[in-house]
Q: What sequence folds into this?
């Protein structure tokens, strides 16, 4: 929450550097309502920005060095020379997103000078809510604003995506785009090929619930990049640029030329793109029944075809479905292999969902879940303090 992380970062900055910061940037995490693993297939996604995010406060230090303090990572520090060459820190993962952002911005010919920085974020780590995107976008927006670089927000998002690639995850463009360009009270339909953005108002009679399974996910691992390769392979077999261009008829025509896993990966993406567009329509009409049908179909497709859910997450989805009864709009959100579930619910049903999770989740997982009530928030923000 902006106020909370702003206060924490200002206080830590002052204590550490002995003076007041002059600038603040903030960018939120996100929850994806529907459209999973479609972004790097040039398809559609429907995320919204959440109430948690990353604040960075800064002051020019008159040197060529970035000197950084990560408040929530045990007050770890790091420093590096501003340069167009990315040099990774061996252990400080958080620092590498900032190191990469500076290098990539300087590679575009922009001038960046030394800053003292304190960073504080409250996006839960490993929850599938894009803590790293919020860090990248917050920092990119800070640099652009302080040094008058005028980098458009969507270009900052693309640079954030490139930071992830430098750090080993060949992710799509969803997380950084929503973190940069989110608007309060709206989800964002992103066409990940044209990068055209369409705001889709969230019906005012619906709440967004995020339930963190507290089984940590990490995308800087092989599974994500492997899924991407499988999708690219399927597109190649069908002779299309990306799975966005394929239909189920085209896929079925080539079924004999691919293994079952490749077929199912492609089926997930092709059907998921359709579901996103149908869900957008349902949102526009406040049609919770159709939204519920599409979100649960999305979950089953991630579970059975894309194989990115885990038993704890599947269990949570079923607990929530049972608690809501009819019109349960619920699915896993984010990259997968742990993380969170998202539900779009009528406010009156929130207490029964919470009660069911409290009563049932620990039995199947040995863990407690964390429930986050949010609505759609604004994207990146900058101000002089
Ligand atoms: C992660 C990636 C995104 C997207 C999702 C899955 O969040 O960063 O680009 O691929 O997984 O939809």
A:
């Amino acid at each position: 929450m902006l106020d909370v992380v702003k206060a924490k970062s200002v206080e830590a900055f002052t204590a550490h550097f002995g003076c007041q910061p002059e600038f603040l940037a903030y960018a939120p995490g996100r929850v994806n309502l529907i459209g999973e693993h479609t972004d790097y297939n040039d398809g559609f996604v429907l995320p919204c920005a959440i109430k948690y995010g990353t604040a960075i406060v800064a002051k020019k230090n008159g040197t060529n060095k970035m000197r950084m303090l990560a408040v929530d990572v045990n007050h770890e520090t790091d420093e590096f020379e501003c340069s167009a060459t990315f040099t990774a820190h061996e252990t400080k993962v958080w620092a590498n997103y900032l190191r990469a952002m500076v290098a990539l911005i300087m590679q575009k010919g922009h001038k960046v000078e030394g800053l003292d920085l304190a960073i504080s974020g409250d996006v839960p780590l490993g929850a599938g809510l894009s803590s790293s995107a919020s860090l990248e976008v917050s920092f990119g927006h800070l640099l652009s604003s302080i040094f008058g670089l005028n980098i458009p927000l969507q270009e900052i998002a693309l640079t954030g995506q490139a930071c992830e690639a430098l750090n080993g995850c060949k992710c799509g463009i969803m997380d950084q785009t929503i973190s940069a360009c989110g608007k309060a009270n709206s989800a964002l339909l992103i066409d990940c090929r044209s990068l055209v953005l369409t705001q889709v108002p969230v019906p005012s009679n619906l709440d967004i619930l995020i339930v963190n399974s507290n089984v940590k996910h990490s995308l800087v691992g092989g599974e994500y990049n492997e899924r991407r390769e499988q999708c690219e392979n399927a597109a190649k077999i069908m002779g299309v640029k990306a799975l966005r261009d394929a239909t189920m008829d085209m896929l079925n025509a080539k079924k004999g030329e691919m293994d079952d896993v490749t077929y199912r990966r492609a089926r997930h993406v092709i059907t998921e793109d359709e579901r996103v567009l149908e869900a957008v329509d349902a949102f526009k009409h406040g049609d919770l029944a159709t939204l519920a049908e599409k979100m649960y179909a999305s979950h089953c497709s991630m579970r059975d075809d894309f194989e990115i859910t885990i038993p704890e997450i599947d269990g949570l989805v079923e607990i929530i479905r049972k608690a809501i009864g009819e019109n349960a709009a619920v699915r896993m959100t984010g990259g997968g292999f742990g993380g969170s579930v998202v539900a779009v619910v009528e406010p009156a049903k929130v207490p029964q969902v919470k009660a069911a999770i409290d009563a049932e989740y620990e039995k199947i997982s040995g863990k407690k879940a964390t429930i986050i009530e949010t609505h759609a928030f604004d994207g990146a923000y900058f101000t002089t303090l």
The radius of gyration is 21 Å. The first helix runs from residue 2 to 17. The chain is about 45% helix and 20% strand.
